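Hey, resending since the last one bounced:
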Amino acid sequence: MENTNNTSDLLRFTTAGSVDDGKSTLIGRLLYDSKTIFKDQLEMVQQASTRKGLDHVDLSLLTDGLRSEREQGITIDVAYRYFATPKRKFIIADTPGHIQYTRNMVTGASTANLALILIDARKGLIEQTSRHSFIASLLRIPHLIVCINKMDLVDYDQAAYDKIVSDYKAFASKLDVQDIQFVPISALHGDNVVNRSKNMDWYQGSTLLNLLETVHIASDHNHIDCRMPVQYVIRPHSDEFHDYRGYAGRIAGGVFKPGDDVVVLPSGFQSKIKSIDTFDGEIAEAFAPMSVSITLEDDIDVSRGDMIARPNNQPTVSQEVELMLCWLDNSPLNTRSKYILRHTSNEVRAIVKQVRYKVDVNTLHRNEENLEVKMNDIARVKLRLAKPIFTDSYAKNRITGSIILIDEATNNTVASGMLL
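The structure tokens again:
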């Protein structure tokens, strides 16, 4: 069935690498060679390159939008870029390489289907490579493409490429990532980015753009466990739809069809799906990440924050949760502070009961001695909630398995978390 709500032709990917590994140049090259930038943008970049005294167009200026970034030549914030080819649409999160911007990488990577990890061919694997790969694995990004960049600076040497590939495979065996591809590139000269390289005829694989266009992402969503958090109850009160009562939300998992048996949590009331409606009319089935309105056969009490699931396949209902937390705030975590936990369409008050350990993101070792959680730290913590929430582990479902914490006093988002 044709479905306008289907987003399988949209690939969200994030870039990660150390400072000066060429992330911004690579994205600029992708946009430039796939002819998806406007003429005036290109002219601006050409002028800026000339002002810098360069004899080539500095494509990194296409993405480094903040003025302070352009002046320092580094990426500070998460810069989102959109481009499309005839085969697929793309949203790129260009995230910073500096150690003090780990939180920005977590933000940019949280919704990504794929991560591009950049490695400088001259330097090989470094601390940042470990950190970014670990975060990609922690955030359950299903696909990784390791771009070995600056091949022009090692004379396009196959041995240099092969060594980095074997080093990375040895390191990645400790991570939970299923799909890893490798591609040797020169972002500066465009080798193997959009067009095949004449300088590396020893490489028989795909170009980077070809990998991005063909990676299979339709099965990245959980289509087994039915979950729909209710965001809004639709009661039009019009003559035409006098008795209409729909429960609107974005499907977080599974496939829903009219006639299916469902249960509404927390009440536990059961019913059958009467219809599934979208902006374009009624549909025969709905699945993640579609936004729909579901009507039920029975008139039961459902409100925002409730969840529609299957009677024989329900999420965990709990008032105590364990999770991996990435701390985003300047002030450290305070076990006496009260936080608001936001999970799908639900909000609940929470306190931190215990910090179990911190993770050293460079060595992957656990630190159980120093338990002060500061900005950019990743830690395993236990939370106590004012009322139960309906969760799956983040490994099973990235939507029902993720939360954010908000400081009640300042209203700042202080942490993002992955439920275990």
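The chain is about 15% helix and 35% strand.

Sorry for the duplicate.
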